[in-house]
């Protein structure tokens, strides 16, 4: 019981930390992409930026894995089975690993039927196969091989991932799907691991009513996963995972934020600004995030800033911005309260609001949209996507120029 409680506490801790990482990841990946697009022809600079981008994306994947494990544990993982061709998806995912396999001199092949129609959660399957392939590449030395084999019956599909790595000792096979367990810390592994990927694989398989197993010898390891094919006539739109532990609370507040100095445009500028320039209100407790967003919109918008929801409400009531971009989790008044206040007042109920959040769960997104948000974007986000969504709102006439 004590070990189980410790495992739960450890998972919640990492989940909370992962939520906190989403804002700094936005401020790492976004500027790196901007610089990568604007850098000159210096190949060394581009190489450094590519390295930084790859490792930032790797960190983001780790964050997402931790949050998925926490959602499964808290019973908050929602399944959305849909009909699709599993062969086509498996080929696509495997093909994405071809380049890294070639770089490591690993032969990556797949064997599967032309088409395997299924009704399963495609997002969960993608995470399962991605983790199994990543694990195989970690343990397969140069000159080795990885084979993906997909078979099926009328009721189920089976996916085998076979590698020619050094194998897993027999006394450790029983532990490979345990959270935070790492089979090998020696130099025989090509990359360090976290002990999260395979645990996530098992939990995603279990929650879909499937099974996953592993066999290993000195000549290689095979992970085998079997899932039900689903029912095509009456497949459910959504299934909920039974809750077995209390949900955890996570804060997105930036500990280094300084909400006091929050308004970038003073009152005199706001009152005398040209009427033909749309106004954008940015509300976030991270001064760095506000500055990053402001830099991308300042040439086309009159930008004002608020450091929390209360200040954002005051600024929205005073300036009636054409678009509000607001974080969700902030100290004091959060983004949902800001949205509710704006929608409940006839003076501001028409102001378009885009919510930014580190909470990637579908339920959180749905809550924001049902609360009246015009859009909902998960951190870390693509700045070009945010720019496009703001412009779409402006072009629709939902804000700027409305009487």
Output the keywords.
5-stranded parallel beta sheet, Heat Shock Protein 90, 3 domains, alpha/beta, 403 residues, 5-stranded mixed beta sheet
Description of the molecule:
There is one protein chain. The chain folds into three domains: 2-73, Helix Hairpins (Orthogonal Bundle), CATH 1.10.287; 78-229, Histidine kinase-like ATPase, C-terminal domain (Heat Shock Protein 90); 267-396, Response regulator (Rossmann fold), CATH 3.40.50. The longest helix has 37 residues, at 2-38. The chain contains twelve helices and 14 strands. Strand 13, helix 11 (362-370) and strand 14 form a beta-alpha-beta unit. It is elongated, with a radius of gyration of 24 Å. 35% of the residues are buried. 43% of the residues lie in helices and 18% in strands. The chain starts with a helix and ends in a 7-residue tail after the last helix. It is of the alpha/beta class and 403 residues long.
Write the CATH architecture name of the largest domain.
2-Layer Sandwich
End-to-end distance, in Å? Answer: 62 Å
Q: What's the level 1 CATH class of the largest domain?
A: Alpha Beta
Beta-strand fraction estimate = 15-25%
Quick one: overall form?
elongated
The CATH fourth-level homologous superfamily of the largest domain: Histidine kinase-like ATPase, C-terminal domain
Give, in spatial order, the strands making up the sheet with the most strands: 3-5-6-8-7
Total separate domains: 3
Radius of gyration using CA atoms only: 24 Å
Low-confidence stretches: 185-193, 234-274, 398-403
Structural class: alpha/beta
Task: Tell me the major beta sheet.
Answer: 5 strands, mixed
Mean of pLDDT: 78
Order of helices and strands: HHEEHHEEHEEHEEEHEHEHEHEHEH
Contiguous helical run count = 12
CATH topology (level 3) name of the largest domain: Heat Shock Protein 90
Strand elements, count: 14
**Helical residues, percent:** 40-55%
Based on the structure, what is the oligomeric state of the protein chains? single chain
């Amino acid at each position: 019981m004590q070990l189980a409680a410790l495992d739960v506490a450890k998972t919640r801790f990492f989940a909370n930390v992962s939520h906190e990482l989403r804002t700094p990841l936005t401020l790492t990946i976004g500027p790196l992409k901007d610089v990568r697009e604007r850098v000159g022809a210096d190949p060394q600079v581009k190489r450094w930026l590519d390295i930084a981008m790859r490792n930032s994306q790797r960190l983001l994947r780790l964050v997402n894995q931790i949050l998925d494990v926490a959602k499964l544990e808290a019973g908050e993982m929602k399944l959305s089975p849909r009909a699709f061709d599993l062969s086509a998806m498996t080929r696509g995912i495997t093909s994405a690993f071809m380049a890294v396999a070639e770089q490591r001199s690993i032969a990556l092949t797949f064997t599967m039927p032309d088409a395997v129609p299924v009704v399963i959660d495609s997002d969960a399957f993608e995470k399962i196969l991605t983790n199994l392939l990543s694990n195989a590449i970690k343990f397969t030395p140069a000159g080795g091989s990885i084979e993906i084999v997909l078979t099926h019956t009328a009721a189920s599909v089976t996916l085998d991932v076979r590698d020619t790595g050094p194998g897993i000792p027999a006394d450790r096979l029983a532990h490979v799907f345990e959270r935070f367990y790492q089979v090998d810390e020696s130099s025989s592994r090509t990359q360090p691991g976290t002990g999260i990927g395979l645990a996530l694989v098992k939990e995603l398989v279990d929650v879909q009513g499937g099974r996953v197993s592993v066999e290993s010898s000195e000549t290689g390891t095979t992970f085998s996963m079997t899932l039900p094919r689903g029912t095509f006539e009456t497949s459910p739109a959504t299934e909920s995972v039974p809750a077995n532990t209390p949900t955890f609370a996570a804060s997105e507040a930036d500990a280094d934020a300084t909400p006091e100095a929050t308004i970038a445009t003073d009152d005199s500028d706001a009152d005398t600004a040209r009427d033909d320039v749309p106004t954008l209100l940015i509300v976030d407790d991270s001064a760095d995030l506000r500055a990053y967003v402001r830099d991308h919109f300042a040439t086309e918008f009159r930008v004002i800033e608020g450091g929390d929801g209360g200040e954002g409400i005051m600024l929205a009531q005073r300036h009636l911005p054409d678009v509000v971009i607001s974080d969700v989790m902030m100290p004091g008044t959060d983004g949902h309260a800001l949205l509710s206040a704006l929608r409940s007042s006839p003076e501001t109920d028409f102001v378009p609001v885009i919510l930014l959040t580190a909470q990637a769960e579908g339920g959180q997104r749905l809550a924001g949209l049902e609360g009246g948000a015009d859009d909902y974007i998960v951190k870390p986000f693509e700045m070009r996507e945010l720019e496009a969504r703001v412009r779409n709102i402006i072009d629709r006439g939902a804000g700027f120029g409305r009487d």
